[in-house]
């Protein structure tokens, strides 16, 4: 999906019309939500190969059915729910939250309006219910912060290790025994650990 996410064009994803295909289509729409996406399901019991062999060609208008992405997702998520029941609609919101995390904040309004017209939930209520769902922008910012924190932690950890091992190489053995070396991920930090490991072997 990496290339699709960079393209500002409508994406039509096509799957077999069996349960596996429907499940795959649902996951794909969740990933691509926030971008122009449609779903085309082939007739049950057919794939592209069998359709072409039987019909001689493939015509989306004749073979299968096409849904707008969020229409399809809504249909799948509400199969066992009553859209006029408040508790069921709270369940729906929870089911939609993973997909909504892929939608930028400025693009969520169209989905809130869709849900407002197809359920008993008001626009204001929907905004509050989805308020705790982070956006791609927020996730990216958090990821950068987590990376900065990890780098700071590793540098501090290595400084402490150097000070300890300068006095007693057994400190490194304890460091490994408790699995703290597994917390270190940067190449620079791993290089330092390898040096101390070799020194311990020579002792």
Task: Briefly summarize what is shown.
With 203 residues, the protein is mainly α.
Describe this structure in words.
The protein is globular and about 65 Å long. It has ten helices and three strands, in the order αβαβαβααααααα. α2 crosses α5 (86-100), α8 (136-167) runs antiparallel to α9 and α8 packs parallel to α10. The longest helix has 32 residues, at 136-167. Helix content is 61%, strand content 7%.
Q: Sketch the topology as an H/E string, one letter per element.
A: HEHEHEHHHHHHH
What percent strand?
A: 5-15%
Largest sheet: spatial strand order: 1-2-3
Return the structural class: mainly alpha
Q: Could you tell me the radius of gyration in angstroms?
A: 26 Å
> Helix content range of the residues, please?
55-70%
Chart the SSEs and their pairings.
Layout: H1 2-6, E1 11-15, H2 19-32, E2 37-41, H3 48-55, E3 65-68, H4 69-77, H5 86-100, H6 109-118, H7 123-129, H8 136-167, H9 170-177, H10 187-202
Parallel strand pairs: 1-2
Antiparallel strand pairs: 2-3
Question: Top keywords for this entry?
Answer:
3 strands; single chain; 203 residues; 7% strand; 3-stranded mixed beta sheet; mainly alpha
